[in-house]
Amino acid sequence: xxxxxxxxxxxxxxxxxxxxxxxxxxxxxxxxxxxxxxxxxxxxxxxxxxxxxxxxxxxxxxxxxxxxxxxxxxxxxxxxxxxxxxxxxxxxxxxxxxxxxxxxxxxxxxxxxxxxxxxxxxxxxxxxxxxxxxxxxxxxxxxxxxxxxxxxxxxxxxxxxxxxxxxxxxxxxxxxxxxxxxxxxxxxxxxxxxxxxxxxxxxxxxxxxxxxxxxxxxxxxxxxxxxxxxxxxxxxxxxxxxxxxxxxxxxxxxxxxxxxxxxxxxxxxxxxxxxxxxxxxxxxxxxxxxxxxxxxxxxxxxxxxxxxxxxxxxxxxxxxxxxxxxxxxxxxxxxxxxxxxxxxxxxxxxxxxxxxxxxxxxxxxxxxxxxxxxxxx
Length: 377
Fold this sequence. Notes:
The chain has 16 helices and five strands. With 377 residues, the protein is mainly alpha-helical. Helix 5 (149-168) crosses helix 7 and helix 13 runs antiparallel to helix 14.
C-alpha cells in the first residue's frame, strides 16, 4: 500500500487519495474550500458573541461545555474572570470519563465563580457506543474522519444534550472548546449537527436516544436555536497547550497531563481505528506534524491535541502500538511486556513517567471496559 510522500498517510486511510506523484489530497489542500467555509462561519459567530451584551431572555450569556480537560478549564477561567460572562458550566457526566478529568472539575468548582450543572444519561450513551463499536466492518474507502466515528459520535451525543439544555433555558450561545485543529473538522451549525446524527443512526434509534425531544431542533426557527462558539478561533495562531497547562497549574486549576485526561475508551478508540482502518487513533494528528515539518523544518508546533516531538518515529510508534493493542484485544501476549512497551511509546510522545504509566494501565484494562460496555473484541 502506498503512503503519502509528504505526510505518510496510507492510501487506504478514510477520505485519502494519492496522486501520481504520491501526494495525498489533504497535503494538496483539496478540502480547503470546505474548511474555509466552516472557519468563516465560526469566526463570524465568535465575533458576534464577544460583542453581545447580557442575555435579555435569561440568567446566562452562554452554556459552557466543560469537560475538565486543559482547553475547557483554561477558557472557563477566562470567560468568567476576564470576559465577565454569566456562565452556566455544563458537564455531561460521561460514564467512561477519566478520573483525572473529574478531579480537575472539582478544582474549577472551588476556584471559578460559575454555575455548575452535571448532566448524565449512562444507559443511552452506552447503547449508542455499543452500536458503533459492534457495527460490521465499514465499507472502504470510507470518508474523512471515519476512523474516529466512536469519538465523534460520543461528542455529538452530549453536544446535542447541551443544545437541548440551552433551548430549555433560553441560552443563546454554547461554548465548545475544541482546539484549533478540531474546529476545522467539526460541524458548527446546530441544526446540521442534529441532522447528521439522524443520518448516522437512523430516525428510530435517534428518537429513542433522545426520547423524541430532538425533533424540535429540526423544525425550530433560526432565532430559537443557540449558536455554537469556538473560543479558540481567536487564538488559533498562538495556541500553545504547553503554556496553557503551565498557566493552569500555576493557578491550581489543573493537576494532570493531557494524556491523563483522556476518557477510558481511548484504548478502544485505537482498537477501532486499527481494526477497521489500519491506523492509530491520532494518525491525522501525526500526519499534520509531518506535513508541517515538510513545509517548514523550523516550525515549532505542528499539531494540537497531542504533541509529537521532532525526534519521534511515528511509523515505528504506530506499528508497535498496533501490535500491543491487537494482542490485548485478542487476549494474547505477556501483560508485563505490554506495559513496558506502552510506557515506552507514551514516553516517546512526551508523557511523564507517571502519565505514561497511567495511560498504559488503561490499555491493559481494555478488555474489562469492553465487557462492561458490551463491546465485542
